[in-house]
Design goal:
About 10% of the residues have low confidence. The protein has 16 helices and 23 strands.
Amino acid sequence: MRTRPVLVLVAVVLIMIGAGVYVLLRPTGAQVRAVGPGPEETGRAYLASWQDGDLSEMGRMVVSPPADFAQRHLDFAQDLDIESVELVPGTLVRGDGLHAELPFHGVRKVRNLGDWPFESTLRMVLREGRWRVVWLPETLHPALAGGGRIAFKEIPAPDTEPVTSSGAPLPHASGAEGYRGLFGAGAEETTGYALEATAADGGKRELVVFRPLHVRKLKTSLSRPVQAAAARALDGVDHPAAIVAVRPGTGEVLAVADRLGEGNGGQSAFRGLYPPGPAFKVVTATALLSEGLTPATRVGCPRTYAPPKGRIFRNAADHPASETVTLTTAFALSCDTAFVEQAAAHLPSNGRGLVRAAELFGFNAEVPGLGEPCGRISPPGDVDELASDAIGQGSVVASPLCMALVAAAVQDGSWHGPVLVPSRSSRVRQVSRRASLPEATVTALRSMMRAAVADGAVTSGGTGTSDGTGGPGGLPPGTAGKAGTARAADGREHAWFVGYRGDLAFAVLVENGGEGAVPVAARFLRAL
């Protein structure tokens, strides 16, 4: 009779051992075997069904889909006017054996507007032996995460898009972005659209911008290689700066690289007015030459000079105190005292001669298309004001555009007003205003500007140093110009270099001096 209890005990032990073996050998999460397609095949099949618009098949591949799964897709496409979607799977990322992710790239085609590219991710899980998609709103678009919304908004859009004279787009980060209106784009505006995402916290961002399909390309005067050279010459300049380049014989603006800041509606290279300082001596020399002086005229260049009944003016550098120099040398050395003395001695005290010379170079006249002068000078009230104006201070202010046109007038022999959109390619026809300079004056100015560079004077006054890559300051051979620094009313000193080389005239301005204007000009010219 003892046999029965023993058998029962043995049976219990065997059951316990079997249960233990099962616990030890049962499959873990990583050992579960999927029945059917793997995660990559499942993800690709889901994307293919989505692209085909087969919502029923998509729903069958989703784990616990919301009751309105299909309706959400339909509403999304209807609200945003989606015609079709193209989906390209990426590389599968496996997790712990139960989870996987398949990133994908999508392009939605919005009716009558264009393509809307986006990136998202399919999240998948192994459930009951089958791989399924874990659907969330952000599967449609990441911006829908956490209750985000996507909607259309209207945006103003220009009816024309400015391009370079060759029809090519403006170079990247060219510095001409703020000049769209001046180049004729934006004079008329139409409506464009953007898709804007609103996050749960209220933050907004544009996902894609659709500009009107009928936007016309407007060829401007800008030269793509010149614009690119100007923009890249400013890369790395740690002070606000600008370069304007023009074609001397026509006044066409070949480049405007403006990084002078947000003032003047982002058009400081055209509208910003700065004291030109030594660069204005081109204009003062014009007035003196018209009074009979020549490049060879001997003039004093003392360290200090006070005109009759006037205050003391000082040279910025240690120029000769007693020796006389030629007017060309005084120009090259940027000798302020020489120009103060000669202006006081030879120009009418009312400043009419200096103002008249400045107006030959476009000062005080409204620039077509700009609506205002690019440079200003007022009649002086006394000898001190005349002296200050003669060295580019006092009432004299000019934009980089204005000073580029000054250099262009010397190269060409005539001053031409700026042209932004050549008449041959524009609905808005611009005609350059022209003013001839006396031939003898032009010849003298050219020799003086060549000497200012060839004699190494561009390295004076902190405006540049020779770097062994060409002429003084690294300027390529054939460059003529005038460099120097000008003190603004707020005490800051701005570096200028204006000049020409071949069929190109330019002005470089660097606020607060920085590395100087000459090295920037050298990089610009060497890149052409």
